[in-house]
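[DERIVE STRUCTURE TOKENS]
===
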Amino acid sequence: MMKFFKRFQDLGIEGEKAKSYDRLTREHRIDEIKDQADEVAKHVKDGDSILEIAPGAGYLSIEISRLGNYKITGLDISKDLVEICKRNAEEAGVSISFEQGNVSKMPFQASTFGFIVCVLSFKNFKEPVRALEEMHRVLRSGGTALIMDLNGKASMRATKKVAENMGLKGMSAYIAGAIQRSGSYSRRQFEDFISRTSFNRYEIRDSAIGFSIYLSK
């Protein structure tokens, strides 16, 4: 189903679903997000400009901001999630710029950011190759883009576990996991996408349910 709708537009979350996503993330994923922030911090230094693509409710950007003096921008296609991000950042007492926009045509000048991160969202993009090419365009020379996502070849048991970590249970977790898996890309697909972009250096690190893709400019 996700693949069908993605044929027509990039997928975003609005309305009550956005509020529910915020609540579930706050209640069930903060420890995981802190680990992701620690990984980002290994690759940046104070003063760096960081872009988070599809920041969801904004918690990863918030956790990254607590680890150093960074200039952080978040870009999401969802108007409601952008407002939620702004509110969460204000409540956390951190300064982050959240903007609405499409990853396939980002509203930034070339070579703006030293680091780009995108977590569990790449499968929502209608034009994956164009999204990667846009990341390359706005990334500075010597910069890194990090994509963390599910593997489309992951087992149903593994994707169900991901849904359970979001607070879902029973059949709801199974269905949500199946939907996530059906829209996710395999390692081979990612390698094909990358081969059609200006990125010529990358590393893929596998995990039990997905992978982290480090793209260098």
About this structure: The chain has one domain: 2-150+200-216. The CA atoms of residues 157 and 174 lie 8 Å apart. The first strand starts at residue 49 and ends at 53. Residues 15-28 form the longest helix (14 residues).
